Amino acid sequence: MESSQQGFGSRFWSLIGATFLGFLGMGTVLPALAPYVRHDLAGSDRTVGFVIGTFSFIALGSRFISGPLADRRGRKITMQTGLLSCAFAGIAYLVPLHLAGVYLGRALQGFGEACLYTGAATWAVELAGVERSSQALGYVSSAIWGGVSAGPAVGHWLGSFGRAATLQIIAALISLLLASFVGETFRPSRGGSGRKLFRPSLLKAGIAVGFVNVHYPVITGFLILHLAQHGNSGPAAFTTYALTILLCRFFLGKLPDRLPASLTFHGGLIFMAIGLGMLAAGPRPAIAILATGILGFGFSFPWSSIAATVLRRVPVNEHGSTISFLSAFYDLFVGVSSVVAGGVASHFGYAAAFSMAAVALVAAAAAGKFVFTPSESAVVSGQTKQFETVAG
Contact at 8 Å (CB) between 308 and 261? Predict the structure, then answer.
């Protein structure tokens, strides 16, 4: 009977709306954060870096809390915990604690993001059904990209850091209210959830996810600087990259559910490599915009291909831990590769950083070959029955 309630109905879209609002609030404070620390609080450039980095380190560590929390207490309470933490982050920004308040806000926001994403992604998969997990994750990613893309524009329009922080509080509370009306059918088991978290298959999947995302700090950090030397098409190219990902994950997210996931994974890597190679060559504006579109198209598929494959192999009461574990590899590789990319760019130029990101895709492809082997695989219908048994 539970399977008849699964699908993309009102509960699912309410969850997606709540996810969008949560990430919209987080994105709103970003454009004013660095100027606020640098000018209003008289912080140094180094302080700005520490403030920005606090989020990533806290988010990385929080993945190992949010996953078990989702499996032991439920997806809904995990997402609500994340939204409450985001609301308190906004309050911390507004409290007159000088830099301590900003650090506290970034820490609360890092913890909130980890719980919000883990709860939303795992909950979405179970509302849609594990056989539609790739499409469900695509919709969640669209909500995230939509929120973090629209958030900075809204924050810039508001005109001050204080107003942006206030909107973050409001957005988090509205999202919390919306999520509270969505029913949850998952019932945590009393077993030792997460004991199998560090299986070799998950490590290989995490490594594949990590190498796929090596390109992200290169794009965010150096795309505009690199293209400024070749026609100054950086802003338009980055917008094309983000918009392509948003649209592809929304409209084409179901492909890894309908095609072999190994095909969509490796096919995505090929398109990414083509796009990065074109960018490394220092193209003219029209070619640069085309290249970022190709890169964004390719990047739309590897994450959902990996995640959907792994989720079908693990018990439902380990879905939260699995999602958070894979996400931790994203945080780790993005953090490390941002430092490495900075060193490569400073010594060899921006083009070398894009070439480095393309080489990382070879490692992602090699790790991916072990993820999509038939070992440890489970029949999707069997996993669906298991979900119905646990959820019911």
Answer: yes
